[in-house]
Amino acid sequence: MTATTMMRREIDEIPAAAARLLDAAPQDRFRAVGRALGRIGPRAVVTVARGSSDHAATCLKYAIELSAGVPVSSVGPSVASIYGAALHLDRVVALGVSQSGRSGDLVALMRACRQGGAQTLTLTNSVDSPLAGAAATVLDLCAGPEHAVAATKSFTNSVLSGLWLLAYWRGDDGLQAALRAAPDRLQDALALTAAPLREELTRTDRLVVIARGPGLGIAAEVALKAMELCGIHASAHSSAEVLHGPSAILRDGFPVLALGEPAEAGLQDTIDRLEGQGARVLTAPAVTPLHRFLDPLLQLAPVYGALEAAARIRGRNPDRPEFLAKETLTV
Amino acid sequence: MTATTMMRREIDEIPAAAARLLDAAPQDRFRAVGRALGRIGPRAVVTVARGSSDHAATCLKYAIELSAGVPVSSVGPSVASIYGAALHLDRVVALGVSQSGRSGDLVALMRACRQGGAQTLTLTNSVDSPLAGAAATVLDLCAGPEHAVAATKSFTNSVLSGLWLLAYWRGDDGLQAALRAAPDRLQDALALTAAPLREELTRTDRLVVIARGPGLGIAAEVALKAMELCGIHASAHSSAEVLHGPSAILRDGFPVLALGEPAEAGLQDTIDRLEGQGARVLTAPAVTPLHRFLDPLLQLAPVYGALEAAARIRGRNPDRPEFLAKETLTV
């Protein structure tokens, strides 16, 4: 193929978009807002997001729970938009994540959070959007214009921006150092070959993606992209949870993509068990470990590439999947 | 078929199990613990659960968020068991839900919640289990012995027990009245025919289940049971979220089960849109509305029956799905 898709170009821009977060202006914002979070000492975090952005929020959920020890809840936007519940969110932070910031139900939920007393904060690529307007504080994802329907660089910058906030909130020098190294590491990761995965994605119509802890949001993101780009029925499960029921279907060559390092606690055992019952388990390209909150994101970069290539080989246009729009205005 | 499975007998016991919660002893416990919750005024709730019990927790998440307005977070057991995070849960309630109460990672998470200052509470069918021992307060699900691997009456009693607590916590007479009517309504619901759904479940190998708000946990439960009982690759999505990506696969006769009433805000629009792009949308048996927190549970009863029958027609043993055990001892 000679034509380059917008999606492929945007995947290639992931390292540059990540590097933009190191500039003085976004760093000043992350530092100020992160330190304010440290002073507030939130008792809980509520995330306000849909689709890919909700998966970015799941990545942040694990990072915040593991680092700050406070529970993070993804509240369904319908709680405000359909059911009109009154929320009580004293010393709770409401974190909106949205590329476009234009979904009406997210705006309604963010307003309900603010009325309920939450500190409201939005990570968005559209700082003049309605969702940005509904939050007291807005942070620019700095991903640059994104045209492909399938979000990629705005997804990675959503996760990175949230982690920058957390790094300043917690005064975590190790996480800050890892985040400074992230652009170069993402560039290295993009060069990894994911040929066996791409091959599988060109021919399968079903896929289960497994991961654990900080990798779960990435597994959900991969499953979503496999559906929207390749038309594959894909679902994501915790590599522990998968043994509680979903494993019943994982036989007779059913393809399973295992994210994470097989050396992680329990993952190799799960892979062995699934292979033993007949599943075909593929592993994601191995990356050089950087930080447990970032390693799943490094693994995602070459997987995005495999998904884009497989979509083209399947005769689909990765920039314009059927039935989907870049912005989904849900009620 | 003349042989009756344990699962079928346990489905038939759902109304009797629900009625047992109306007895004086469990009511005294629900009232005492629920009123204590009202006095504490929790700032957030953390749920500790896996598999079907985690889906029951999702049902309770929506009910608590809509009724009490506090965020509910399902914390991954690995947060404690693998990653050893210290949690800060002042004025937070940790709610364990487990049929057997024997999964080591749930016990570790419940202990971490207690160390973090949470009020700990477990709903379990095994009041002398390790998970019960890790919580300050234990409430018996009163489901009676459950032998089939696929949980049914313990699932419905998990949801009902949590709703009883909420009804006393909030002093909600309307919810209490609905809960008192639930056993009879569940009996009515079991008599509903779900023949078109059963037919579809006997022949499909893929299924997407959609629902919204209080129905989402039920959708996840139906998808899980379709996998473990019938070997169908099934996934559950919010009927709003489904338009953000998963809808790309819903064409060419892809079967979709829509839970809830088509009259719900947005559901009929979603159904129309999915049918317009070629999905085959089935609706669950219509139940007489009782309460928005209970209606999805009423709809589940005949769907359980359809899943059990379809498993048998597919030549599977609903009582002993391959590769699965009644208790999964995850680390």
TrEMBL record, chains A, B:
A biological process (GO) of this protein is: carbohydrate derivative metabolic process
Which InterPro entries does the record cross-reference, listed alphabetically? GlmS/AgaS_SIS (IPR035466), GlmS/FrlB_SIS (IPR035490), SIS_dom (IPR001347), SIS_dom_sf (IPR046348)
Q: Which UniProt keywords apply?
A: Aminotransferase, Repeat, Transferase
UniProt domain SIS: residue ranges: 33-175, 197-316
Q: Extract the GO molecular function terms from the UniProt entry.
A: carbohydrate derivative binding; transaminase activity
Pfam families, A to Z: SIS
Q: Matching Gene3D superfamilies, A to Z? A: Glucose-6-phosphate isomerase like protein, domain 1
List the protein's name.
Answer: SIS domain-containing protein
Record organism? Halovulum marinum
